[in-house]
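thought: user wants a sequence for this fold. calling inverse folding tool.
action: design(structure=
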């Protein structure tokens, strides 16, 4: 669990490229801000650059130019993006800006007139053009072979898999549909080919992302099935890797995804952005789901798959939110007993329709509600984790150092959820191993356990 701003942020992701730079090789640095979707864009850009013969520098000093992939979701994220651009300019001097904030070039050049180029989200060709202009390529086909799985910014044993772009909703606090457009789903064959390649190259966990995962494929005319996400999830589940679904908008057909979790094809984990529980607040947000019905849905999901872990995010202090509405949210949370919860205090974002709503909530009230919300969420998390003590769970090993093996259970997504630590007898474990542990201790967000079985 984490506070404002966005809790899905792998700040300053470091590219892991297995080979060293040759003398004179053109070299690019990348600062990747924002959500996992932006991270996937960064990976695509780096993969293309690597294929063209560029080396990737993990620091400013070794780079001939630096790409800053920005986030523009909240005003605080915009400010952080401007800071990151400023740092890259100060440390390196040759900076190309891309990503969500690139949709507002004047905002960037107003603060940083010396940037070499500004391109918007998904403008891969424009980013590459800008790089070619700043640092011409110098390919050497004998040594510049691309790693078969592409360049990954995540550890090799897990990878994000982007299945669509854009969104057909119009939530009032969100400008993503303006920046990224309407839902455009990738062809299932292309997604599966990418997933197969990743698994063949050692990826053990696929993290499925998009703006609206459950809507995948509903933009295809004349499609054979009503909800193509069901087929895609089944096909991905047959590859033998862990498959984790993120950003699942709570449509009724999500109920049909849950049996795949009970069957073990897809991880029993649903990341569903509920945002609020009071019907009037949800209506002002222009979110369709009502609190009562979502409680029924949650109960139905748990009947089908009792081990399902539910993660969600919420906004407190949305314009017009009364104390009574907030209290309904707290009561709802008590009843829903979600496993993992993130919470934002509402912020105006330039261009969002919610800015014009009446009844903006005072900052100190937002802050106070956020604390009350997080206190409750934390107590729920603590109790849920305490109930796992004594259980045997499968975990994936993320990292091993002198102190412990840092792992995750099926209920924990990388970067955003908790960890399980093995601090004895972990010496021969390696990242990517999937092993069985017995949980012997629980904290607010993390678990500790003993190794029981190497499978
Ligand atoms: S569903 Fe998500 S991406 Fe789409 S408008 Fe709402 S918050 Fe934005």
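)
observation: tool returned 455 residues.
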């Amino acid at each position: 669990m984490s506070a404002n701003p966005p809790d899905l942020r792998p700040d300053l992701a470091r590219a892991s490229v297995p080979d060293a730079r040759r003398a004179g090789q053109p070299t690019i640095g990348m600062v990747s801000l924002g959500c996992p979707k932006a991270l996937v864009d960064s990976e695509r850009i780096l993969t293309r650059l690597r294929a063209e013969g560029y080396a990737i520098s993990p620091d400013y000093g070794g780079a001939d130019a630096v790409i800053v992939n920005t986030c523009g979701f909240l005003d605080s994220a915009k400010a952080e993006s401007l800071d990151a651009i400023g740092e890259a300019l100060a440390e390196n001097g040759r900076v190309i800006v891309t990503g969500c904030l690139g949709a507002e070039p004047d905002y960037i050049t107003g603060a940083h007139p010396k940037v070499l180029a500004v391109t918007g989200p998904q403008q891969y060709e424009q980013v590459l053009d800008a790089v070619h202009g700043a640092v011409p390529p110098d390919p050497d086909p004998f040594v510049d072979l691309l790693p078969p799985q592409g360049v990954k910014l995540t550890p090799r044993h897990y990878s994000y898999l982007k299945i669509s772009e854009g969104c057909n909703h119009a939530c009032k606090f969100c400008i993503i549909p303006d920046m990224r457009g309407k839902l455009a789903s990738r062809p299932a064959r292309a997604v599966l080919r990418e997933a197969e390649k990743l698994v063949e190259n050692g990826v053990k966990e696929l993290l499925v992302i998009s703006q609206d995962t459950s809507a995948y494929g509903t933009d295809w005319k004349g499609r054979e099935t009503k909800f193509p996400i069901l087929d895609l999830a089944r096909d991905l589940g047959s590859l033998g890797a862990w498959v984790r679904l993120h950003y699942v908008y709570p449509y009724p057909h999500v109920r049909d995804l849950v049996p795949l979790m009970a069957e073990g094809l897809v991880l029993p984990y649903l990341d569903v952005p509920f945002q609020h529980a009071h019907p009037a607040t949800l209506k002002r947000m222009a979110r369709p789901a009502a609190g009562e019905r979502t409680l029924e849905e949650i109960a139905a999901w748990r009947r089908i798959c009792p081990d399902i872990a539910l993660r969600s995010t919420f906004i407190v202090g949305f314009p017009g939110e009364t104390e009574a509405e907030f209290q309904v949210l707290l009561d709802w949370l008590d009843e829903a007993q979600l496993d993992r919860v993130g919470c934002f205090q509402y912020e105006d974002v330039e261009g969002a329709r919610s800015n014009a709503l009446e009844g903006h909530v005072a900052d100190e009230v937002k802050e106070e509600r956020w604390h009350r919300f997080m206190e409750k969420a934390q107590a729920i998390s603590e109790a849920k984790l305490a109930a796992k003590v004594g259980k045997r769970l499968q975990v994936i090993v993320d990292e091993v150092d002198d102190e412990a093996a840092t792992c995750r259970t099926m209920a924990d997504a990388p970067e955003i959820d908790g960890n399980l630590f093995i601090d004895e007898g972990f010496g021969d474990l390696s990242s990517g191993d999937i092993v069985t542990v017995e949980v012997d201790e629980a904290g607010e967000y993390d678990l500790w356990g003993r190794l029981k079985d190497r499978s």
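thought: summarizing for user.
answer: Here is the designed sequence. The CA atoms of residues 89 and 114 lie 8 Å apart.
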